[in-house]
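[09:14] KT: can someone run the structure on this one? pasting the chain below
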Amino acid sequence: MSKKRATTLAEMVTALGPAPAEQSGGRYLQSPVQERGFTDAAGCHWRLVRGPLDPRRAKRLAVEAAVMSMGDHYDEEAETWFPRFLPEHERPAAWLAARAWFDATDLLVHEAYEFVADDGRALLHIETYC
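[09:31] RB: done, structure tokens below
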């Protein structure tokens, strides 16, 4: 009777095949904060200039910034991060909701970051993560 050969860990990993990102030729999609910037759908490049921001600075930007974005929206197929720019009338309520979660010890946390476009416009980005 022949002995059955034990499979090694290396053989098992090889049998699994490449990771999904390797199969698609893509890479793991990081947030605009991790990437230190992003380009929006209109082709405007936004560069991270500071953050996480002090809540007082973030509150000021919620009013003064040309653009405000909150949360993360991904298109997994396109491997692209799409910002959701908030209309001015949504900003006060969005800021209050985000401010309640700054420095939170719960699972959901919000942090504010400032981005600047090539034309000098400021963007307040509230990043949400667990």
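[09:33] KT: thanks! The two ends are 54 Å apart (CA to CA).
[09:34] RB: yep, looked fine to me
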